[in-house]
């Protein structure tokens, strides 16, 4: 952003040239491509008449969580893993239960693994801190849902017996 506008894509060597800018102060921002675990970065650049201006931007390496989602040591296909914190991210596990969540800034995140709806498993959440450039392995074993039993005089015969047991699943 500045008195005029210019954009471009850097070459393999990382050099970008923007021509024909009006004199003034500009906010230069570089964005990594989608597949790199890097974060964007910005700097101010002053452009003068008949003078070349330059700036060096280093894109910081982001943090990432990698791991495997299992149930009793068996990989869970299709589990939904999501993180909330300074930034958010999500991923569906593949056939081997693996996931990878990238482009994380420094901070504390809540990482939740939720099973596919057809599995009788309970979601699990963990609070984890991460720093720039750090890769943290976080394997999560999902828990089987424990059935709950509630006893009482369900049929109104003033007795509590086997006829009154109500079996609750996922209640």
Task: Characterize this entry briefly.
The protein is built from no helices and 15 strands. The chain has 171 residues and is an all-beta fold.
Describe this structure in words.
This protein is mainly β and 171 residues long. Helices cover 0% and strands 42% of the residues. It has strands at residues 24-30, 41-47, 63-71, 74-75, 80-84, 89-92, 98-104, 107-114, 121-122, 124-130, 135-137, 140-141, 143-144, 148-150, 166-168. The strands form 5 sheets. Strands 3, 4, 7, 11 and 12 form a 5-stranded mixed sheet that branches. A 4-stranded antiparallel sheet has the order 6-5-8-10, with no helix packed on it. It has a two-stranded antiparallel ribbon with strand order 1-2. The termini are far apart.
Estimated share of beta-strand residues: 35-45%
Helix fraction? under 10%
Derived from helix and strand composition plus strand pairing, the structural class reads: mainly beta
Residue-averaged pLDDT:
87
Number of strands: 15
Short key terms for the protein model shown above:
single chain, 171 residues, mainly beta, 0% helix, 42% strand, elongated, disordered C terminus
Q: Strands, helices and their partners?
A:
Elements: E1 24-30, E2 41-47, E3 63-71, E4 74-75, E5 80-84, E6 89-92, E7 98-104, E8 107-114, E9 121-122, E10 124-130, E11 135-137, E12 140-141, E13 143-144, E14 148-150, E15 166-168
Parallel strand pairs: 3-11, 3-12
Antiparallel strand pairs: 1-2, 3-4, 3-7, 5-6, 5-8, 8-10, 9-13, 14-15
């Amino acid at each position: 952003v500045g008195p005029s506008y210019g954009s471009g894509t850097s070459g393999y060597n990382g050099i970008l040239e923007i021509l024909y800018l009006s004199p003034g102060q500009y906010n230069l921002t570089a964005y990594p491509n989608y597949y790199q675990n890097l974060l964007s970065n910005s700097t101010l650049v002053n452009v003068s008449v008949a003078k070349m201006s330059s700036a060096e931007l280093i894109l910081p390496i982001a943090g990432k969580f990698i791991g495997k989602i299992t149930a009793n040591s068996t990989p869970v296909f299709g589990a939904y893993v999501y993180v909330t914190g300074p930034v958010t991210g999500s991923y569906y596990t593949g056939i081997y239960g693996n996931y990878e969540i990238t482009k994380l800034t420094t901070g504390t995140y809540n990482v939740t693994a939720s099973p596919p709806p057809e599995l009788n498993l309970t979601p699990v959440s963990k609070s984890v801190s991460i720093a720039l450039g750090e890769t943290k392995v976080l394997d999560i074993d999902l828990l089987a849902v424990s059935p709950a039993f509630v006893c009482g005089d369900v049929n109104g015969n003033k007795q509590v017996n086997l006829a009154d047991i109500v079996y609750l699943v996922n209640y």
